Amino acid sequence: MRLKRNNIKPRKPQGARCKKPVLSPASSFEEYDEDFSEPCPTVTHSSQADVGSDAKNELLKPGAMVNSSPLPGPLRTGSPWVQVVGHAGNFRTGPDGKLLKKYCESEQRCLQKLMGDSLRPYVPSYYGVTRHDQQDYNTMDNLLAGFDSPCIMDCKMGTRTYLEDDLRKARESPQPRKDMYEKMVAVDPGAPHPEEHAQQAVLKTRYMQWRESLSSTDTLGFRIEGIQKANGTCNTNFKKTKCNEQVVQALEDFVDKSVPILRSYQKRLKEIRLVLENSDFFRAHEVVGSSLLFIHDRTGKAGVWMIDFGKTLPTPPPLTLDHRTPWVEGNREDGYLWGLDNFIDILTNILSVLLE
Ligand SMILES: Nc1ncnc2c1ncn2[C@@H]1O[C@H](COP(=O)(O)OP(=O)(O)O)[C@@H](O)[C@H]1O
Ligand SMILES: [Mg+2]
Question: What is the predicted pLDDT for the residue at 57?
Fold first, then answer.
């Protein structure tokens, strides 16, 4: 049963009751996330002379805050930065403690706009493009700075993690995919329809939508992507974490049932929600695949920031989004605020149980 999304704030998320899972072990599922998400195109320059010759360089002109030095060092062991999830090899740290993420034009556009939006305090500060080893990087604040052995959680927000454009492209070349059929069967042998079993293949569009139905993306409008605890243990096996009870358990474990930490997160999320509801940027963007990064440490310090804007696209004017209306193809709604409402309600419920 799905939550009613036109309820602005469902009081008690019920949508994700555990059904008896018919799923095979998680290991077969590991790379399932990677295969259709169109990664942000990265730009590799063969020489300095390339700069200024392509569309991207419009963004590198004055005002774009290009940063060509000092050059960053490799990611060091013992570095205060850790990556919980995401594409391996996409990041470096700079000697000044900044974080470098492989260049992606749409992410740069978003980060630049966000620096002038009311959301600015809730995203990493952006410092322009840094080039290293013929590779451009978007340079931003390392949000872990100032935390002492932090616990980190990445939650992907929204009811959809593919763009409408991804669906359109998949439809334009509707070849049945054997590889996707095999991944589907590896996760849930009962998932393919009889005709898909007969063909031993599924369409990419079908695979994309089936994929979303496995996690709480579909039922709650967010999903936990990964959690790293202070002791270094890291769990990224949440792709089938769908029901309320599983999410609650993961969150309680993440904060070690600390009421003060939960309260800090609840307060910060309510603040973010209020700012999102009034943000010009947010109103005019389809925010897909973006995460909230939760960070706290044993000193009691806690914060939440929005990250990952590689698949965040402006809506065609004059279309604006409320981020709560259910998605139907063409309306571009992403369910971000619906998911945030549910997240806040879940935190509130956890707190009230802990305080009983
Ligand atoms: N500004 C940041 N500060 C600290 N950690 C970050 C920051 N941006 C990303 N990370 C870490 O890197 C991971 C992946 O980041 P993300 O931007 O989502 O990359 P991808 O596009 O590969 O999904 C996050 O889960 C988080 O652990
Ligand atoms: Mg990400």
Answer: 34
Q: What angle (nearest 5°) sits at the alpha carbon of residue 110, between those of residues 109 and 111?
A: 95
* CA-152 nearest atom, ligand 1: 27
Q: Is 23 helix (H, G, I), strand (E, B) or coil?
A: coil
The residue nearest atom 10 of ligand 1, judged by CA position, is 83
- Chain centroid, CA 9 distance in Å: 22
Q: What predicted TM-score, i.e. pTM, was given to this entire model?
A: 0.82
Whole-number Å distance between alpha carbons of 30 and 266: 31
Structural domains in the chain, CATH included, are 1-21+146-172+214-356 (3.30.470.160), 26-37+173-213 (no CATH), 38-142 (no CATH)
Classify residue 101 by burial, with Cβ atoms within 10 Å: 0-12, 13-18, 19+: buried
Which of 75, 101, 147 best tests ligand 1's pocket when mutated (most atoms within 8 Å of CB)? 101
pLDDT band at 174 (very low <50, low <70, confident <90, very high): confident
